[in-house]
Amino acid sequence: xxxxxxxxxxxxxxxxxxxxxxxxxxxxxxxxxxxxxxxxxxxxxxxxxxxxxxxxxxxxxxxxxxxxxxxxxxxxxxxxxxxxxxxxxxxxxxxxxxxxxxxxxxxxxxxxxxxxxxxxxxxxxxxxxxxxxxxxxxxxxxxxxxxxxxxxxxxxxxxxxxxxxxxxxxxxxxxxxxxxxxxxxxxxxxxxxxxxxxxxxxxxxxxxxxxxxxxxxxxxxxxxxxxxxxxxxxxxxxxxxxxxxxxxxxxxxxxxxxxxxxxxxxxxxxxxxxxxxxxxxxxxxxxxxxxxxxxxxxxxxxxxx
Length: 305
What we know:
The protein is mainly β. Helices cover 1% and strands 52% of the residues. The protein starts with 48 loop residues before the first strand and ends with a strand.
């Protein structure tokens, strides 16, 4: 069972990963018809920036209401087909719900903002669900990790408005555990710019690892990436690994070793061309089939196919 965390603030978010193809959003065209034309509203300013604030939300099957600090970054991009005042945003990150094991749902953002400030199909998609929930399902339901603003979510409510330096209204969808999340958010813009972009490391890799207690193995994995966040799953174990790119050749990593009592280890990785190497450490809880209780460490290597 997931429990509420009063404050879950992420420290690192980044922009569009180089080499990634941006999704194309539908364009809202002005209505056509007879009669006198309506006055053209003054276009709202560019909504780009870092938004952070309170999210009050509920989960399917849970009566309690939770309060957390969420962060959503928006970066408007070129949109020749957009009408005046409409903005297409993508390539940035979000940090949302926190879980009892210390994991925080993270991912990317894309969608449109209408000339009146209403979010149009604004999608927050979790990129690290394989880390939050390595088993891939709970209660027989597959995880999703996708939420939408306003009427596009699973729970229709107050439209999500992004205007005058604030983001407020309804965001809803399913989290990495497959639970329906219904959140009413009130976020304010902390900055009008977002952090710099990160290079793409997404793709298929050959993975090998070794541990201090003689464990390890090899597998083929697929790295998924949104902005500076990435994750991959070793399905046969299962083990979920997430990371944050912190520089041209560096990243921090966290490992969710689900079979060993969901122990979480931390470490760093080095990115060099098509190869990623890393080390990690933590404390084993001594679960059956795992390393003895006590200090634990390991290393891994990824080579792009």
